[in-house]
């Protein structure tokens, strides 16, 4: 049944399932966490949920994680909801930094039995959000983690990049990156930083001659509740 639903992976126009958050945090030692799914559409949906470890194109039955989801497959009527419970089943996970998985929701609309739809393709919609396991040894917060990001300019192939090194044990989903120099604002195309990882981000329309000037870097990161925490550093 799982592989049958997953095989319907092409996307239709709009998702009807709304999740209760933009990310899921699983604190070590907690027996389970829950996610609420609401069907905001006008028709019942068959919904499948699973976790993956980054290989998003694998079928659910080919993925092994130390968690189980219940129910993995359910019907949600229009304007109704369903709570999915995620339980840790045991197994070795990092004790000194977060571990990232992805929570998947695949919704399959009902088959239109009308004569007019005989030649229409039946499609499905998939939503995927971050699922983060957080060891109990981590007692910091997002603001302190953002302060632990070190930035350095790099010039590669005639383009200017900002190298961001994450010295914290947290995953940081960076957003709204910018360099401000002499009244000018240059966009930085930021993305996610893994714990203790380093990424080079392109600085749009930035001249390497400006590197020697004084300015500041502004950036933010998405917190556990889907909001943003902002930070700036001078150089």
Describe the secondary structure blueprint for this structure.
Blueprint: H1 2-6, E1 17-19, E2 23-27, E3 32-39, E4 45-52, E5 67-70, E6 73-76, E7 81-88, E8 99-108, E9 125-134, H2 142-147, E10 149-156, E11 159-166, E12 172-181, E13 184-188, E14 192-193, E15 198-202, E16 216-222, E17 228-234
Parallel strand pairs: 2-9
Antiparallel strand pairs: 1-3, 3-7, 4-6, 4-8, 5-7, 8-9, 10-11, 11-15, 12-13, 12-14, 12-16, 16-17
Instruction: State the CATH superfamily name of the largest domain.
Output: Immunoglobulins
What strand line-up does the widest sheet have? 2-9-8-4-6
Main sheet attributes: strand count, strand direction, barrel closure = 5 strands, mixed
- List the uncertain runs: 7-12
CATH topology annotation of the largest domain: Immunoglobulin-like
Q: How big is the Rg?
A: 21 Å
Our count of helices gives 2
Quaternary structure: single chain
By secondary-structure content and strand pairing, the structural class works out as mainly beta
Helix content: under 10%
Q: Please report which band the strand proportion falls in: under 5%, 5-15%, 15-25%, 25-35%, 35-45% or over 45%.
A: over 45%
Number of strands: 17
Shape, per Cα inertia axes: globular
Q: Calculate the terminal CA-CA distance, rounded to whole Å.
A: 56 Å
CATH class of the largest domain reads Mainly Beta
On the 0 to 100 scale, the average pLDDT is 89
Family: Belongs to the periplasmic pilus chaperone family.
Domain Pili assembly chaperone N-terminal: 17-138
Keywords: Chaperone, Fimbrium biogenesis, Periplasm, Signal
Domain Pili assembly chaperone C-terminal: 165-229
């Amino acid at each position: 049944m799982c592989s049958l639903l997953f095989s319907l992976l092409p996307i239709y126009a709009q998702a009807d399932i709304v999740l209760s958050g933009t990310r899921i945090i699983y604190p070590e030692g907690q027996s389970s966490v829950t996610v609420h799914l609401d069907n905001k559409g006008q028709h019942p949906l068959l919904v499948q949920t699973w976790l993956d470890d980054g290989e998003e194109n694998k079928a659910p039955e080919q993925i092994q994680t130390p968690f189980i989801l219940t129910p993995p497959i359910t019907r949600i009527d229009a304007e109704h909801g369903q709570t999915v419970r995620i339980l840790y089943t045991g197994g070795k996970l990092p004790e000194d930094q977060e571990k990232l998985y992805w929570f998947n929701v695949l919704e399959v609309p009902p088959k239109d039995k009308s004569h007019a739809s005989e030649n229409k393709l039946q499609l499905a919609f998939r939503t995927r959000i971050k699922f983060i396991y957080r060891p109990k040894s981590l007692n910091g917060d997002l603001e302190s983690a953002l302060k632990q990001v070190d930035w350095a300019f790099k010039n590669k192939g005639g383009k200017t990049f900002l190298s961001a090194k994450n010295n914290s044990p947290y995953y940081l989903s960076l957003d709204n990156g910018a360099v401000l120099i002499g009244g000018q604002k240059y966009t930085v195309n930021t993305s996610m930083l893994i714990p203790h990882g380093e990424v080079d981000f392109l600085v749009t329309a930035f001249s390497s001659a400006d590197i020697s000037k004084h300015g500041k870097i502004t950036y933010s990161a998405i917190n556990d509740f889907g909001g943003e925490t902002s930070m700036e550093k001078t150089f």
